[in-house]
Amino acid sequence: MTDNKTILEKANAAIRAGNYEGFLAHCTDDTQWNFVGEQTLRGKEAVRTWMATAYEQPPVFLVKHLIAEADFVTALGTITLPDESGKATDYAYCDVWRFRDGKMAELTAFVIKP
Description:
- The protein is of the alpha+beta class.
- The chain is built from 3 helices and 6 strands; from the N terminus they run ααββαββββ.
- The radius of gyration is 13 Å and the shape is globular.
């Protein structure tokens, strides 16, 4: 459990630095990202393509709680991203990561504008 939390913390540090390939190194090749109510990305290449537009600038986020159990790590916090007009907007998020063999294999993400 602690190892998975450490992996997620390292991956998040890469995101903050704009090092998306460094982040993706922590994901399985067949990673699947489920944005609840929006879309599902299948595979590292799909995530890479999504990140190129969604994270043109590195997101600003604050992890308030990081909870680990078995193969799962849940992160609760806030994230600031540009909205459709490009204005920086704060969102509340809950990411539930499933790990496999020391890598992030699946994400279920809940992101809402409070």
